[in-house]
Amino acid sequence: MRWLAVVVLLGACGKHPPPVVGGVSLVLDIPNGVLDPKGFTTVEVVLHEPSGDIARSAKVNADGTFDLGAVDPSTMVSVEATLRNDSGAALGYGRSSADAAFAGGAQIVVPVRRPIAYFAGTVSRDKDGDPNTPGDHWTEVPATFSDLSTGTPLDGTAKVGTQVVMMVTAGPSLYMVTQMTSDPIGALMGTAKVTPVSTADHTVGAALAGSLTGGVTDGAGADDGGTLVIGTTTALFAVNTTTGEITSLASGNFSRVAILTTSTGEIDAVAINNRGLTTGACTPTAELWWATLSGSTPGAHKVATGGFSDVAADRGHAYYVDACGGVLGEVTPAQATMLQQVTPAGAGEPTALAISNGQAYIGVETQPATTSLLVAAIATSGAPRTLWNETAQQVVNATDLPGVQRQLNAGSVEFAHLEVGAGGDYVALTTRAHFDGAEVQDANFPAITMDTEELRVFDAATGGIVQRYRSWCAGVVTFDPFATQIVKWGCASTTGQTAPAPMSNLDHHINSMTFLFGKK
Amino acid sequence: MRAPIMALVVISALAHAAHGDPDPRRKISVLEYRSRSSALPGIARRVIEALGKQTSLQVLGQDQTRAVYGDHLDQVLAKCAGDAACVAKIGQKIGAAEIILVGISELGDVILTMQRIDVAAHEVSSRVADSLAAGQVPSETQLAGYLTRLLPPGDFLRFGVIDIVANLAGAAVTVGSEARGVTPIEALKLRAPASYDIRVDKTGYVPFSTRVALPPDGEIKVFAQLSRRGGEAAWYQHWYVLAAASLVVAGAGGTAIYFGTRNTGGPAGDGQLHVTGSIQ
Questions:
Q1: Which pTM does this prediction carry?
Q2: What's chain A's Rg over C-alpha atoms?
């Protein structure tokens, strides 16, 4: 009988080895295209079980197989897999979308993708081609992306899609949202459409049948790729990517959303309506909403009102930060409950949140213009540690006078986006800063007003910056009474900072930022 | 297009005799002092980033130091004007063992200095300085070079911990190619970042082997489950099955090797499951 078993198994071998009888077969499903993870040598697998996590790593053989050894069976497990090179860099990451039984003969499929972060925004062009006359014309442009597995510095030249105002990921799946812009400030208008984009080669598919109204603000997708939740300035929407149906869940100005899959497989979402500005006095009038996306009658209801500034989801639970109270809390369909004090009174406001595997990454804004990234464990009440802290500054060069520079200190800075990528290997955030530089007569410096937008991607383990990209830097000379001052200025880049490549790319806003398999 | 470096002159590099090995995880503060120069913006931040990547030191930046010391930090730092004893008092107040004072001044060229100030001794323990042409910024390699001259070599040795736990005692543990004793075994402090091949072996049991990537200052726990050879072992662990597989390999190519070279599989014994996988 044993001889027979050998022959049968070997005879059955094709591209996909069959599951080992009595064992568990893990299939890491890559997209089979130009965007396949490449260069990896090891696989790291984390099994999330009710009793705790089990981590295993193994060398990947030349034929793509690997052996993780023996593991206790479990009735319910979710799987995370990371493909790494010899240096430990994550070149591919994925996770299962639902819990599965870890039992003899089981085959568990985990989609795996490169750790790619996508950015989308709008750009403005001079309306009449004369920089001395006011007026901008706003337009939509392709999204850009940063493939962290290749380490190529971001300069806006890596593009995907056309006329994209927002990118949304849903586990291994990618979607772009298109919408018209309007002058003079670039506000989004008209209906928005959702279109799938291939994660194998970035081919753009056909737009879904449904459409959204209001300017799109934020989006998130479930790990199964089938459901999106999108906030706009007028409503909160659920998107069924299989049928193309788009359903309005509630009216309001929804600017932060997150999506979660509960232990029972139900897909829910949390969102913030009427979020206040964070650069001024705290406004406790934001509304925390809970939405049910599964079932035949999706709907949403308000849970609480307060200083809510961001939401996130992790392992079937939803969380929030309250800028006014300085707290991190958990939200359920029934209530919002404080978990821990993140910042004491007067020590900054938590305004951005992303959570992955129990680690909360919290963006804190401290007036006038300092941003910090804190890390805290959800399960414990220990003091958060600071991963990054910086006061926003920008150096400008006098275009006609080489060597003459001016350093401006920001008057305000705010987080726009915060997301965790590759299961916690990377943390990416974007900030917007505003600068008012007073006139300096002795130096012939005029008064300058300027705005910047910047992306930073951190190595979550070390806090080191992997990418730093200033997507937007635009200013005007606001006061030059004697017309004798230096009026032509350009934004300088610091070491390690990239900007849109000249001639081929314009500065652009970052209206959205998201990783494949990102967590926020 | 930036001009090439006009001059690159190491003005001084004071190598000091070590006063014993300082704690490689001690707290230090990196402060920036400018003498009427706006050159090299962000240089202190780059120093902090480099230290974060290359050492296990607890590094406070200027903002973090200010948060502890008070908003008048910059005023005090300006009054100190680079004086070591004065700067050391800042370190005393924030509980740092050392301060790295990054100075930028201009004498035609941009002069970049880094002083490592021993807070307890109130003196400079080492110093490096470089002259850079206007508009030039030191590369990452240059910056790393400054720091290796400034700090003791021990600061650049980083470690992680691998804790190997087996389900039975008396199994031989090999990490890399080095025998480390038998289980139960103390957690091993090893150089990091690095990848290590781990093997746990005991006569009569199927060996456990894995490879782990150990991050700096990280701790990895490895649970080695050894299952007994013999009646409960998988069918292909028996010599006659392996021999049969070898015979078939000759005609079956790479696919057969997948089975023929695996050392474990199927029911692993002790109620556990054997996990294998593939990337497709």
A1: 0.65
A2: 24
